[in-house]
Amino acid sequence: MKIKNILLVTFVFNYVTLTAQVEISGVIKNHEKWSNLIIVESIEHLSPFERVSIDSIRLDEDGKFRKRFNLDSNHLLLKFVIQKGDDNYSIIEGNQDNYLYFTLEGGEKVEFVGNADSLYYSSSITSKNAVNNLALESFRDLRKGFFHLSRKREQSPELYSESEFMDLWMAKIDSIKPKLLTKILNNGSLSEQYLGAYLLYAANFGNLQSPVLKRKSNEFSEAITLGKSIKQELEKNEHNKLNNFAVLDINDLGRNFEDLLEMDYTVIDFWASWCRPCRSANQSSIPKFLQTFDNSVGFISISTDESKEKWIKASENDSIYWSSYRVLNRQLIEIFDLQALPQYFVVNKSGEIQFHTITIHELTSFLNNRKL
Known about the structure:
Blueprint: E1 7-11, E2 19-27, E3 34-42, E4 53-58, E5 64-72, E6 77-84, E7 99-103, E8 110-114, H1 119-122, E9 124-125, H2 131-137, H3 144-155, H4 162-185, H5 190-203, H6 211-214, H7 225-234, E10 246-248, E11 254-256, E12 266-271, H8 276-293, E13 298-303, H9 308-317, E14 323-326, H10 330-335, E15 343-347, E16 353-357, H11 360-369
Parallel strand pairs: 12-13, 13-14
Antiparallel strand pairs: 1-8, 2-5, 3-4, 3-6, 6-7, 8-9, 10-11, 12-15, 15-16
Helix pairs in contact: 3-4, 4-5, 4-8
């Protein structure tokens, strides 16, 4: 009998007792593109790099699997990942997303059915009373634009250059952020609010700061690790000034940051050679931005690269012609969370922050509203 290319996952648990016996079973067609490894993760931190693997599951030679294990109430939001090709962990984004999100909230019996290719977009929940998981399933509608854009580029690579593709990708990220915010604020299930915050943090490249969200910070439970992580992020102290700090030019000559602020408003662009969206902006978005605002706004790029050689090479490859410096102040990088890049600050002559964003699109909108 031929095995269909489907995934069937069943969860049975009692959430009230704070522990849950979970049984995951199903079948996946084990063709050459996929390994026989499945990983189940608990999402307990906002950062996608802080993975918490609960268990792994091996498919048998027929592509079937079954696994039982106990989970506590901290494992409210989980991720199911099918591995591709070999046993090295990988997350696939675009039109072949190899993961899905699910929750234990509500004590339901949950069944997923999906195609092994593009699991995130093809999976569906078929069990009764799966209200909370249906809410999580609705998040993928926000990402369909990424699916179609990736598929279009895959089918016709000549349609977009690398920088054009990144501009379109960033525009789609901008478009889903207000929708994610609505998801968090709509007082749905806790798992729905958690997933909204988790995805919004990723969309903001490691920044969840929002005056609107801060009013909800006390609603995120400290008893659950992910809720505590969200609450801590929302309660971070706000800094309203880029205090004076030293930057280095290409000849390693130091300059005081505030001495560079000659215009009424200056955009400070923090970037790094390893940051792909930054490099795309250097090659496309920033030159267009500078043409738009000409001499009405100052613009300074500051690299967080520790290596001078990498900074210079990236600057030359990206044809950076505007003011460009490098900063080695690790404390400044930590305070403003500059590991997540790019970040754009609009400051006045005193270094006081007037606006902060991670996209040129939002930066342009802010300055246009100021009629600059």
